[in-house]
Specification:
Layout lengths: L13 E6 L4 H15 L3 E8 L13 H19 L5 E7 L10 H17 L3 E5 L6 H17 L4 E5 L3 H4 L11 E7 L4 H9 L2 H4 L14 H7 L3 E7 L5
Parallel strand pairs: 1-2, 1-4, 2-3, 4-5
Antiparallel strand pairs: 5-7, 6-7
Helix pairs in contact: 1-2, 1-6, 2-6, 3-4
Amino acid sequence: MFDLPTTIPNQSCKVLAIVPHPDDETLGCGGLIAMLARQQSQFYFVFVTDGGASHPRSVAWPSRRLARRRKAEAIEALHRLGVGDASRRFLKLADAAMPEPHSVEWNAAVSELVDIVKKFQPDLALLPWRRDPHCDHRNSWQLAQTAFQRACTRPVVLEYAIWLDEFGTPEDQPRPEEALRVVYDVSSVLAAKQAAIAAHVSQTTSLIDDDPTGFRLTPETLARLVRPTETFWWARDATD
């Protein structure tokens, strides 16, 4: 029985990571992933969107080219975290335009995730925080919860918040009855997390220089997310 991991587990476990965009795997839970990799845990990464909307006005980097680049960056980041051989699936849903719940495309994505969950049987699931301000993070959470329900699987769920502290409203914050704060010391693998973030060149540098409105991780955001500790919210319930 895999219990609530209030400290880094000293036994291996099966970890399913739901990643809204390439780079969220590192920003949100890269330290925990690197720590669990040291414990010989098994991983399955599901990248939900293709990440192709970060620079919408770029001529040199149209969305398809950018999506290919971001996929390659994610694969390199996993290597730098020590999980380069882990199973992974790229659902390739549209960045910032995920399909509506219960639409044909949504149900197809749920079915694909149900198949992964049934075959992998995760002990622990790492999901984006259910009310993280970015729509893709919220929708990815809903996608995963729907898949767990249909697969009749209830792993321990830890939710990572990337944009909550920066853009969230009071209504977005965890409620006492729904989640317990869990903090891990990841200082021993901080260098690996920093290296993995550096793999996401399109999001951290001026690689794409023909869209002044394009997204780029700021030093302030990186300083907030790359610290000796990582915070998660243990979901006491499976629904919202």
